[in-house]
Design a protein that fits this description.
Layout: H1 6-19, E1 34-39, H2 50-68, E2 72-74, E3 78-79, H3 84-93, H4 97-113, E4 125-126, H5 130-145, E5 149-159, E6 164-166, E7 184-193, H6 199-204, E8 210-211, H7 213-223, E9 226-234, E10 240-244, H8 256-265, E11 269-271, H9 283-293, E12 300-305, H10 307-319, E13 325-329, H11 340-343, H12 348-351, H13 359-364, E14 369-373, H14 378-390, E15 394-397, H15 411-417, E16 420-425, E17 436-439, H16 441-451, H17 457-468, H18 471-476, E18 483-490, E19 497-502, E20 514-517, H19 523-531, H20 544-553, E21 557-562, E22 568-569, E23 571-572, E24 582-585, E25 589-592, H21 622-625, E26 626-628, E27 635-638, E28 642-643, H22 645-649, H23 652-656, H24 668-674, E29 679-683, H25 690-703, E30 715-719, E31 721-723, H26 740-747, H27 749-758, E32 765-767, H28 770-788, H29 805-823, H30 827-846, H31 853-863, H32 868-878, H33 895-898, E33 902-909, E34 912-920, H34 925-934, H35 936-941, E35 946-952, E36 956-961
Parallel strand pairs: 1-2, 1-29, 3-4, 8-30, 10-11, 10-12, 12-13, 13-14, 14-15, 17-19, 29-30, 31-32, 33-36
Antiparallel strand pairs: 5-6, 5-7, 7-22, 9-16, 9-21, 17-20, 18-19, 23-28, 24-25, 24-27, 26-27, 33-34, 35-36
Helix pairs in contact: 1-32, 2-27, 3-4, 9-10, 16-17, 26-27, 27-28, 27-30, 28-30, 29-30, 29-31, 31-32
The structure holds one RNA strand.
Domain Aminoacyl-tRNA synthetase class Ia: 13-216, 566-760
Catalytic activity: tRNA(Leu) + L-leucine + ATP = L-leucyl-tRNA(Leu) + AMP + diphosphate
Keywords: Aminoacyl-tRNA synthetase, ATP-binding, Cytoplasm, Ligase, Nucleotide-binding, Protein biosynthesis
Length: 967
RNA sequence: GCCGCUGUGGUGGAAUUGGCAGACACGUACGACUCAAAAUCGUAUGGCCUCACGGCCAUGUCGGUUCGACCCCGACCAGCGGCACCA
């Protein structure tokens, strides 16, 4: 008898399966349902670790099982090939990232093949392949077209060591997640994806997904939706409001008298110039009229409505001095661009209005710009968005407003005219206890930018100092700091005047960047109030909806949602990534690369180290860099930043469905064959990154009509982590690393796979136990000897089915339980079942039964997904089957076999076990009672007399004695 | 601080979801084989009392609901994870 030699048989069968292309998946197969089993593809770090085995070999059990159940199963894999570690390793070893990465891919492919998994290598994708990243670039362009990708100046996480920007998700706890260096805040212009546009959908969409609760909650926490209200606290400083009416308008027109009246009630001074020639306006004439007759300074709030907004912008541009606030309501559009009504307007002066503004200049002249959209015409909304982007303005979309703001009362305008500090709160019901306001240093800085002269020096100093600090430094010091701005606001609920402070415990990037402080209800506010002796009010709570109604009626508060989630900053100042397909032209600004020029290939570069000025190494690729502007044809430069690799990896599963497509990232038809992914397993560390990004990309593509699904992953299993034998995280320094190659050499791939399956629940992981894998290895040996020890044609006497009944029952139970448990991904209990089944076989053999060939076959079929090599070897070599075991069907179980005729009935007295009876299945309560009462041990315990009998058929009979049931 | 998860033998873990707690393994002890060891096979293995039949205790702690609770409810303790000066 030959010994079980895994390394020999495993190589043999791996070659056999590969040559026969067993696992190259067809797009569809007649009569079979498609099933894509997705696991996160690997980063080509250079070596497979035990975690990879856990990630890939366990889902493979399910893949093999589903194949046997008749599915057309795709089990794809690939490589997430771009990224920082490749570049760092490359720099360290003085080898090109591409060479390094390709070498790793080759080596890891070999390692992956040693698992004996059913990977479909014909569909392998690698994100560094231009055929792949051309579509990553294409998606960027499509997103750019629709405003889902944009460039903006933001405060970003900057790693001084890696010299690159990091997403919030990559800078958790204020440390770079690659190198651990403390992250700094830096103001940079970056490309971003508008993931916040889908924030609600990303939260609400989870409801219908079959994901682990922990994964769902992780995302919900990360998105951090808070529902509350945005409330305006008017400043006590009385401003002058200058209202510029629109085309054919006048100070007497609809809402103006009402607004004027209301503002004056609040103590504002209001001017509404009666503009000359309102029915046939001339821009210069109107602008000059305003400039001549009205004083405009830092106390002025300027409001322009419709065509008046155009006048207002020109007025401000000409004044050239800061004003308090600029409000543009329902602004008329550039006639050349969109509005045919204007274009065809017969009045020549109208058309001669200039829409050419120096937006940068205007931005610097205002502390705050608000754009009010009337939300009635789509073109107009588009223009309002454009305008608010140009001016970095708050865009307020009107709800239930009169068309073009022509109602006799317009609270939305009034509310936004008042110069106020807006706060976000989840507790509007505490507003009566709000005794001061606190603004963040970021918000204060904006105000200082335009009104620097007015700010007290200690405020300037405090703001400067705190903005220098990193996020981490600001959070380290929990002791409250802050200064009084000396400005005052009115609490709109109490009407009382309250101070405004600036303090760094208020964050600039959350909510409005300012809070109403309620020391009586908020610990932080209390600590602050106590430290600086600010008033604390014990005003009682009010009913939330009552408060909201009050604030709404006053026009100072609206329900509002805020998110912790920020837009996805995807620019990376790095070489080893996908170039962002944009061109920067001095005259035309950023222009998209024409689609037909894709892919923009990463230029070969010898020196790919990041520059000290923070510019991407791509800036050194001079030939590549210099291009013509696609719009004006003048000299221009390519964008030198590359994309965050999470962009690459957020759509790779779509490519699996159509990996060779040259015309699309994947055809809708092919995607329909496989997507959305029914089952995705991977690491819990990706909950708030990869999984969230992928969901966003899918939703964005869906909204643009390129994919038919809105959620990419219907179910998700986060797998656990394999720890070292010492129950600690594996690490070289601890010396507790288990090398899968070593284990495979010692015990074989089958044993490694099966032990990983056996060690515990998949979502839990656990410590690697050398004894544990040895136990599994022993089990495989026992199978080997059991099956290869049989001799044929000796089962002639085995026809007596009664003799085989115990074994048959064990077999049928195993078929059912293993199938059920694989479906549940409860691999550990599957292995237990297989062990029990082997015990039953061995018991039968020990009892002298001759075991039929067909029974061994079932044993091997059940084993096949778990130990595919051993099962194949015994199936073909020992049992002499011509066809591979992996082309066989999963065996059927016989329901009758599962319900044994004889069962053990548990007899309890007062719920305590007193005896077990061997009885026939299905006996009646009376029969059971009679039998139970005969039991000697039961008799001893029922002396008080049986008061009540609980009978659960085929399970238990419980005799209740001496308990007063009337109580 | 908020949210969530988990507590079962010496160890990893089972338990048909309210019906025999500890399946299946690891480990340990003893035995068989062996000159011996390893490997393999067999027996035992939650604790306490008992020669035994059997009994009592036992699923983090305390209490409750129930004929009956690892499972449901309440309070607490411990560990892990996510978020965190997020208003």
């Amino acid at each position: 008898m030959l010994k079980y030699n895994p390394s020999e048989i495993e190589k043999k069968w791996q070659r056999y399966w590969e040559t026969k292309k067993f696992y190259d998946t067809k797009d569809s197969v007649e009569g079979k349902k498609n099933y894509m089993l997705l696991t996160e593809f690997a980063y080509p770090s250079g070596n497979l670790h035990i975690g990879h085995w856990y990630a890939f070999s366990l889902p493979d059990i399910r893949a093999r099982y589903l194949r046997m159940k008749g599915y057309n199963v795709m089990y794809p894999t690939g490589f997430d090939a771009f990224g920082l570690p490749a570049e760092n390793a490359a720099i360290k070893n003085n080898i090109h990232p591409e060479v390094w990465t390709k070498k790793n891919i080759t080596y890891m492919t070999k390692q992956l093949k040693s698992m004996g998994a059913t990977f479909d290598w014909s569909r392998m994708v690698s994100t560094m392949d231009p055929d792949y990243y051309q579509w990553t670039q294409w998606m960027f362009l499509k997103f750019y077209e629709k405003g889902l990708a944009y460039r903006a100046l933001t405060s970003v996480n900057w790693c001084p060591k890696d010299k690159t920007v990091l997403a919030n998700e990559q800078a958790e706890g204020g440390k770079c997640d690659r190198c651990g260096t403390e992250v700094m805040q830096k103001e940079l212009s970056q490309w971003m994806f508008k993931i916040t546009q889908f924030a609600d959908d990303l939260v609400d969409g989870l409801k219908d997904l079959d994901w682990q609760e922990t994964a769902k909650l992780g995302q919900i926490n990360w998105i951090g939706r808070s529902e509350g209200a945005e409330i305006s606290f008017p400043l006590t400083k009385k401003h002058k409001v200058l209202i510029i009416h629109g085309y054919t308008g006048s100070p007497d027109e609809n809402k103006y008298p009402w607004i004027k009246n209301k503002l004056e009630e609040l103590g504002y001074e209001v001017d509404i110039p009666r503009l000359p020639n309102t029915n046939n306006p001339d821009q210069n004439e109107q602008v000059n009229y305003v400039l001549k007759n009205y004083k405009i300074d830092e106390n002025t709030i300027l409001f322009g409505h419709s065509l008046g907004a155009v006048v207002a912008l020109k007025v401000l541009e000409k004044v050239g001095k800061p004003i308090a606030k600029l409000v543009l309501g329902a602004m008329a559009m550039d006639p050349g661009a969109t509005d045919s009504r204007l274009k065809n307007d017969p009045r020549p002066n109208w058309r001669n209005f200039s829409w050419d503004f120096d937006f940068e200049k205007i931005k610097k002249l205002t502390y705050e710009v608000v754009v009010l959209s009337d939300l009635k015409e789509r073109k107009r909304i588009f223009f309002m968005k454009y305008l608010s982007e140009k001016l970095s303005a708050r865009l307020i979309e009107g709800h239930s407003v009169k068309e073009h703001f022509t109602g006799p009362t317009e609270p939305m305008i009034l509310n936004n005219l008042i110069n106020s500090i807006k706060v976000f709160t989840t507790r509007p019901d505490t507003i009566f206890g709000a005794t001061f306001l606190v603004v963040s240093p970021e918000m204060a800085q904006k105000w200082i930018n335009t009104h620097g002269d007015l700010a007290p020096p200690e405020v300037k100093k405090y703001v400067q100092d705190s903005l220098k600090k990193t996020e981490l430094q600001r959070q380290e010091n929990r002791e409250k700091t802050g200064v009084d701005t000396r400005a005052k606001a009115i609490n709109p609920a109490t009407g009382k005047e309250i101070p405004i402070w600036v303090a760094d415990y208020v964050l600039g990037h959350y909510g409005t960047g300012a809070i109403m402080a309620v020391p009586s209800h908020d610990e932080r506010d209390r600590a602050f109030a106590e430290k600086f002796s600010l008033p604390i009010s014990d005003a009682p709570l009010r009913d939330k909806s009552e408060i909201m109604k009050l604030l709404k009626d006053k026009g100072v508060g609206m329900p509002h949602k805020t998110y912790r989630l920020h837009d996805w900053i995807l620019s990376r100042q790095r070489y080893w990534g996908v170039p962002i397909p944009m061109i920067n032209c001095k005259t035309c600004g950023y222009q998209p690369v024409p689609e037909k020029e894709l892919p923009i290939k990463l230029p070969p570069l010898k020196d790919f180290k990041p520059a000290d000025d923070g510019r991407s190494p791509l800036a050194k690729a001079e030939k590549w860099l210099k291009v013509k502007c696609p719009k004006c044809g003048n000299d221009a430069e390519r964008e030198t930043d590359t994309m965050d690799t999470f962009v690459d990896s957020s759509w790779y599963f779509m490519r699996y469905t159509d990996p060779k497509n040259k015309k699309e990232f994947a055809s809708k038809k092919n995607m329909a064959n496989w997507l959305p992914v029914p089952m995705y397993s991977g690491g819990a560390e990706h909950t708030t990154m990869h999984l969230l990004y992928s969901r966003f990309i899918a939703k964005a593509l869906h909204s643009l009509g390129y994919v038919d699904f809105n959620e990419p992953f219907l179910s998700r299993m986060n797998r656990g982590i394999i720890l070292g034998p010492d129950n600690q995280k594996m690490s070289k320094s601890r010396g507790n690393v288990i090398d899968p190659d070593v284990e495979v050499k010692k015990y074989g791939a089958d044993a490694v796979r099966m032990y990983l399956a056996f060690m515990g629940p998949y979502e839990q992981g656990g410590p690697w136990s050398p004894g544990g894998i040895n136990g599994v290895y022993r089990f495989l040996n026992r199978i080997w000897y059991l099956v290869s020890g049989i001799s044929y044609n000796k089962d002639k006497n085995g026809g007596n089915s009664n003799e085989y009944r115990d074994l048959d029952i064990a077999i049928h139970k195993a078929i059912k339980n293993i199938g059920d448990d694989i479906e549940k991904l409860a691999f550990n209990t599957c292995v237990s079942e297989l062990m029990k089944l082997l015990n039953a076989f061995e018991q039968a053999a020990r009892d002298g039964y001759k075991i039929q060939n067909t029974k061994y076959k079932i044993l091997l079929l059940l084993l096949a997904p778990f130990a595919p090599h051993l099962a194949e070897e015994l199936w073909q070599t020992v049992l002499k089957n011509k066809k591979s075991i992996h082309l066989e069907s999963w065996p059927e179980y016989n329901q009758e076999m599962l319900s044994e005729e004889k069962i053990k009935l548990v007899v309890q007295v007062n719920g305590r076990l007193r005896d077990t009876l061997d009885v026939k299945r299905g006996i009646s309560e009376n029969e059971a009672k009679e039998l139970a009462l005969k039991s000697e041990n039961v008799k001893k315990h029922i002396e008080g007399g049986v008061k009540k009998v609980i009978y659960v058929k085929d399970r238990i009979i419980n005799l209740v004695v001496g308990i007063d049931l009337t109580k």
